[in-house]
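For the sake of transparency, this paper describes our internal protein records without simplification. An entry from our holdings is shown next, in its original layout:
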Amino acid sequence: MTKLRVAVIGCGSIAKHRHLPEYGLNPNVEIVAVCDLIEERAMAAAEKYQAKAYTDYVTLLNTEKLDAVSVCLPNYLHAPVSIAALNAGNHVLCEKPMATSIEEAEQMIEAANKNKKKLMIGHNQRFVSSHQKAKQLIEKGEVGKIYSFRTAFGHGGPEGWSVDGGNSWFFNKDQAFIGAMGDLGVHKADLLRYILGEEFVEVGAFVETSAKENTDVDDNAVFILKSASGVIGTLAASWAYTAKEDNSTIIYGENATLRLEDHPDFSLVVQYKNGEVVKYELGGIQSNEEGGQTTTHVIDHFIEAIVEDKEPLINGEEGKKSLEVILGAIESVETKSIYQLER
């Protein structure tokens, strides 16, 4: 098989620690180009992966014959660059959140459909073994009726791992649009939709900027969510978990409680109503603290979807639905009311 010709646009931390290494390990891929506004950054990535360096994505798209593009840019650029790449005839893997509005998300989906290309959003939590096992247990009926959940995703903040540290675009509202909600919260909104197998219909939120200075994006957010069937729970996203990262989810059901990524040794612990406890050692979530995320399965799934001509697990529609939860939370904060999500 001819290798897929891939370009990565944006050479920050997410490209350096996830996209580029995972493309490099995939036998079906040739990394032919990289792009970053900062020439030194593009040149360093190009040298490491024997690719051509660009500082302008339009020039790259007009020059290179490509099959697929990863968009690893600040949030406000996700939609315009993804649409340009799709219109240039490329499949696109875009980092999350996919866009800054529903209108942008719909334009991305329209561009993918019009050009008959794959659009995938980088929600890697769906590929975590404990999360997939929990979904299976729920679907098999072992947990019974789901009553409630609580999930959290928090760490000390982007300055700890972003290539630009405290000067990162993550803290610039014009570029980031939102803070911890967009960085971490949207991951958990997507995960819960996936595990529960249903949509959220209502969201209430409290959002603060209390841990970081010189920024006006949120660094602490807590949502209350209600699903179509009446499952209620909380989602917390934070850049203020300074001592230790939390990436846990607990699901409370009729017959059992599922504890995901909540134990130091067992990535899934199932506590049954009858007192039985089953512990699964499935391998924990990779974190940025462990030196990068090179086996998230995101890249492999994206490439597989292209090669086998099948729809990615997190396509544009899925990415949009998870984004809607976050945008609904913003509306809840602004109106100081429970926001009804349109379904």
Remarks:
- Residues 287-293 have pLDDT under 50 and may be disordered.
